[in-house]
Amino acid sequence: MNFDKVIMVDWSGGNDRGPKPVKDAIWAAIGSGGQAGEPVYLRNRQVAEAWLIDTLTDFRARGERVLVGFDLCFAYPKGFAAKLIGREDTLALWDWFEAKVEDSPTKNNRFDLAGEINAKFPGVGPFWFNGLPRDISHLPRKGTQRAGHGLPEKRAADLAIKGSFSPWQLAGAGAVGGQVIMGLPMLARLRKRFTDALSVWPFEAPDTQIVLAETYFSLLPDLVQDEPHQIKDAAQVSLYARVFSALSGKATADLMAVQATSEGWVLGAGETEVLRKALDKLPPRLKNDCFAMPQGAYWTPVDEALAHLEAHLHPVTGTQSVSIADASGLILAEDVMAARSHPPAPNAAVDGYAFAGPAPEGLNELPLVQGRSAAGVPYEGTVPDGHAIRILTGANVPDGVDTVVLQEDTTVDEDTLRFYGPLKKGANARNAGEDMTIGQPILAAGRKLTPGDIGMIAAAGVGQVTVRRPLRVGVLSTGDELVPPGASARDAQIFDANGPMLAALAAEWGHDVIPLGRAPDDRDALREMLNDATRSCDAILTSGGASAGAEDHVSALLSDTGSFALWRIAMKPGRPLVLGMWNETPVFGLPGNPVAAMVCALVFSAPALRVMAGGGWRKPEGYLLPAEFSKSKKEGRTEYLRARIQNGCVEVFPSEGSGRVSGLSWATGLVALSAPAQTIAPGDPVRYIPFADFGR
Ligand code: AMP
Ligand code: MG
């Protein structure tokens, strides 16, 4: 039961709470792969319903499966619907409430409606707690005033949860009754709007694209304080969005496998250990100071900067189980063990005849037994002493024999096999387990799966592997001068080259790219865009605005977060590299100049993102090849030259000017010249690193 997205909603029975985020309003958070986006504040029910419809419509269009969890009783205790609407049908009861409830941001009829309902039941109740100053007929102020209404106080699921409230209590600290009356109409409308694409668990089979479920936001009370949100409702939706999206498909299916009654069930009730475990498996977040490097007056050598990244980053994505058919290019989150030995039994490497080896030098003559051993159809008997048997490539070597002579080296006449020796014992036969043995670790966590890996895993009998969810990398260009490629542009404007280029790079590195467009040179606008981006991204690559000038808003904003680090790296090309955490999301502030942006992305972002994606640190090796060029280089900086291979030698782009974007296309890689002064003459070995090697 895999959901791509989980939305957790904390509903409310109160009136509009105003424009500024406050507690006891409606809050929602979207989770995926164990990570939650920034909680969304929804000031009233009308706004919240519109947001839900928009969000679900969007996910639906993208083909994503969504679980929507509400901290809201979906049903009343047994017998209520039967008495009120004539049948014990919870979803029909929702429609009844939808027809009766009147709602607006400032006013609703929940107390009057509760009194009206009570009037239909014998005795006093079941609803109680009139929260209004005026008396309402049939609605007692105290629970103890109720008697004889004939309904249970709680549902079975409520009894399974410590501290749960009865839906009959309409108001007072912790009460849930008011929001239930004010929530059911919204649920009824969602059902009508999304019709067949939506189901309500557990009343309907949860096999649709959208599944609504009731849950309870006090299942893991001790964990709420760990969420990075001041307002408790925000922390709760964030926590449960993480928890429910961290569950494996199997765990979700298990939680959903309950007997449906008219009372419904609370997703996760009584299963808090399962929820906790899902969360345990998630990696911790990056620390806010992970980019803080000791600042000296000197320029940091490239290797020192890389060593810092290696030491301070770790995987941040959750895990999922995927079929090996979908696993190429993904990163293993757990070791893979051979499920069976390979080959599982001794088999023939060629077509020929099997006999008990060795065969002595000279002519060998052996009687053939009837039958043969073919791939998939082995010979079941034992070959008698001194006999041979027909065998085909890949067939099990039968009992009694161990060596195979190649068909082309034999003649067969009247059931006698003849060939010339010598042939060693075991020739042309493969031993059981000679390639892999059952239980043996064949690939380690952190491995980025190659097509060859997929073949090996398949041969070892493994069909599913646990991998990291892809890292979501946002790409944002900054600058007032930027216009989208292909648009019309004035002379003072330039086309955004970095956005598409960095997006293409990150995609090649195997990440999920989230294009974030272009930000103007305006601090507030950039702040908003970064805030938005951190809802959906695990890391953000920006370009431009990363120096210390008046229009360098990326540096300016990050420097206010307390996590800002300006890395002055001794390299060419490349101006300072700006790193920082924005809402706990790492931002790599790359230079605006496209050549510098690409080189810095290759050298720093590629390995950093690889670690965050779960792939471990990897330094691109490159190759030593003879130079075709001459160059003399001063001491101090590492220089990266755009380069390509021609006739076995490395040539470099004629202009080192970093404004020449065409050189990025001309080149197939970089030549890295280390810090010491050096003079390179044609024929001298230089280190050439193909572009593809950086993010592999
Ligand atoms: P900045 O770092 O913002 O001062 O930009 C440095 C240089 O790079 C300026 O000439 C910018 O116009 C140019 N630049 C910045 N962003 C981009 C981009 N996305 N595409 C192409 N050029 C850019
Ligand atoms: Mg700029």
UniProtKB/TrEMBL annotation:
Q: In which pathway does it act?
A: Cofactor biosynthesis; molybdopterin biosynthesis
User: Which reaction is the catalytic activity of this chain?
Assistant: adenylyl-molybdopterin + molybdate = Mo-molybdopterin + AMP + H(+)
Domain MoaB/Mog intervals: 474-611
EC number(s) per UniProt?
A: 2.10.1.1
User: CDD domains from the entry?
Assistant: MoeA (cd00887)
Name the Gene Ontology biological process terms. Mo-molybdopterin cofactor biosynthetic process
Any matching Pfam family: MoCF_biosynth
The keyword Signal belongs to this UniProt entry's keyword annotation:
no
Q: A single GO CC term, please?
A: cytosol
Q: Which cofactor does it need?
A: Mg(2+)
**What keywords are annotated for this sequence in UniProt?**
Magnesium, Metal-binding, Molybdenum, Molybdenum cofactor biosynthesis, Transferase
- In the record, what terms sit under GO molecular function? metal ion binding; molybdopterin molybdotransferase activity
NCBIfam families reported in the protein's UniProt record:
Glp_gephyrin (NF045515), molyb_syn (TIGR00177)
**Similarity field:** Belongs to the MoeA family.
Biological role: Catalyzes the insertion of molybdate into adenylated molybdopterin with the concomitant release of AMP.
Q: What is this protein called?
A: Molybdopterin molybdenumtransferase
Q: Which organism is it from?
A: Yoonia litorea
Organismal lineage: Bacteria, Pseudomonadati, Pseudomonadota, Alphaproteobacteria, Rhodobacterales
